[in-house]
Amino acid sequence: MLRFGYRVGMRIVVTGASGNVGTALLLRLGATGEHELVADAVVAASVPHLVHQSSIGAYARGAKTPVTEDWPATGIGTSPYSVDKAAAERTVNRVEEHATVTRMRPALILQDAAASEIGRYFLGPLVPKALVGRRSLRLAPFSDALSVQLVHADDVAAALDLVLTTRSGGAFNVAADPVIDRAVFRRVLGGVGPVVPVPALRAVAAATWRLRLQPTDPGWVDLGSGTPLLDTGRLRALGWAPEHDAADVLGRFVDALHRGAGRPGPLLYRRGRDR
Q1: Where is the NAD-dependent epimerase/dehydratase domain (predicted)?
Q2: Which residue among 45, 54, 177, 212 has the highest number of C-beta atoms inside a 10 angstrom radius?
Q3: What is the pLDDT of residues 86-106, one digit of tens each?
């Protein structure tokens, strides 16, 4: 698990990622640890603007309809990642009486350079990269209840730059069109697998996770099926618009997974190569 904050002039940006470990440990090390330290530092140093890189995962369960930023950010209790994101927001919220606080809530962030890292995180070492590509994934089961949003990392960076420049406070949803559902998945990859109910997908994820066959806990299925879609109107009103189409981002990312794309560094190193 990595979590860090960095200072930009007299503004502080906090970002992070949570691992597939126990919720209590995540909260002790993450949301109630480093975030508290950063929040205390903002107040102590009289920093006027705190930008917190949160996630769509902070939202409570909802129907698959677009919601604005006033949807409850209380998380989904069966997802350790979601619980952590909601707790982190509660921690930084206490800074609001001392500084402008911005909470960025992006959908799933993808870029080619992160393919190896994300593959290691969600697929693990037992899945050969040669088997992860358009030909194989077009056979993957896809529930009718699943619809997810994506956004390219460059577009998230542009959103961060915008709120830093304008010093805009409050929460901002960040996502690109179109929503990835069965129809879009089929169009991008040339096919789609059978319709499998979410409970069955969760059962398979839980069983293979407990057997240590893959690193993705079943809470991620709950997150993918339970989070609402994002209305990005508030961010677009500031002048933001994604340059990358979500369907194109998905297709390029699948190709990057297949070739094991990455970059030098402790996290982005290419799969199969020494760090």
Answers
A1: 38-175
A2: 54
A3: 999 999 999 999 999 999 999
